Amino acid sequence: MQTLRIFLAASVFMLIRFLSLFAGETEHWGEYGVLYNINKNWLLVSDYQMRVRDDIQDYYWWRFEIGPGVRINKWVDVRVLYRNKSQEQKPGSWQVEKNLFIDPTVKLFNKGGNTFDIRTRIHTRLGNVGRQFIRVRPRLTHRFNIGWRKCNWYVYNDFWLQVSALGPSDRWNTNWLDTGFKWQLCKNLDLTTFFQYRSDKLPATGKWDHDPVIGTSVMLNFDRIARHF
Questions:
Q1: Does an H or E element contain 19, and which?
Q2: Predicted structure pTM score
Q3: How many structural domains comprise the chain?
Q4: Which region among 2-16, 53-67, 131-145, 194-208 has the lowest average model confidence (pLDDT)?
Q5: Any residues with CB less than 8 A from the CB of 225 and at least 6 apart, and which?
Q6: Coil, strand or helix: which one is 95?
Q7: Helix, strand, coil % (nearest 5) of the chain?
Q8: 144-155, pLDDT tens digit by residue?
Q9: Which domain range does residue 180 map to?
C-alpha cells in the first residue's frame, strides 16, 4: 500500500512536470513564515513570499501576509488575512497593492491519512489598485510519517474567478495546478517543496499563457518551540 501511495504521488508530480514542457519560462517562489497556535481553536500566521521569473533571473514580486485563523469545528475552519504586495511594472518602478482575504475551508472527506477539502477565497482589494476574485481550490492531501517526521503530499487546482465588469467567458482567467510535499526538517520547522503549472488568460487574445513554477516554503511553528520551555 505504501508503495502504491508513493507511485500515485510521483505520477501526479510527473504529469504536471510533463505539462510544463509546453509552458514558458520557469519561475521560483520562495516563502518564509511563522505560525503560532494560540489554543486548540485559534492560530496566528504570518509569512513573506518573493518571486523570481525569466528562468529564475529577475526578482519582480513580493508580498507580506498576516492574520488569524479559527477552527469552527472538525470540518470547517476560517482564516482572515491582510496582504501587502508589490510588483515591478518596469525597471525601478513598483506598484503596491493591498488585499483582504477571507478563507473558509470545508473538509468533505477525512479518513485515515486522506483528506479532501475545498477552500473558497474571497480576494478583495483595499483601495483602487488590483482586481477582485473569488477563488475555489479543491485539494486532496495524503498524510504519512517517515520515522518521527510528520509528512504529507497534496495536489490541488485553484480556479480564479474575477469579480468585475467582464463577460462570463472572461471571469475564469487564472488557474493554478499544484502538487507538493511537506515534511518536518525538525520538530518546529516544516519544509514544503512544490511544482505548479500556472495559467493566465491573455486579455488581448483570449488565449492561455502557461508558466512552470518551482517553489519552496519554510514555516516556523512557535507553538512547538514554546513546548520546550
A1: helix 2-20
A2: 0.86
A3: 1
A4: 2-16
A5: 188
A6: strand
A7: 10, 65, 20
A8: 999 999 999 999
A9: 2-226
Cα–Cα distances in Å, from 75 out to 109, 117, 118, 220?
A: 9, 9, 11, 25
Task: Give the CATH number for residue 66.
Answer: 2.40.160.40
Query: At 33, is the pLDDT very low, low, confident or very high (cuts 50, 70, 90)?
Result: very high
C-alpha distances in Å from residue 50, one per residue of 62, 68, 71, 85, 98: 4, 22, 29, 10, 16
Helix (H) or strand (E) holding 54: none
From residue 49, how far is each of 33, 141, 182, 199, 210 by CA, in Å?
Answer: 9, 23, 17, 19, 21
| Contact partners, residue 112, CB within 8 Å, separation at least 6 | none
The separation between CA 173 and the C-alpha centre of its own chain, rounded to angstroms, equals: 17
**pLDDT value at position 19?**
55
User: H or E stretch including 55?
Assistant: none
User: CA 17 to CA 2: how far, in whole Å?
Assistant: 23
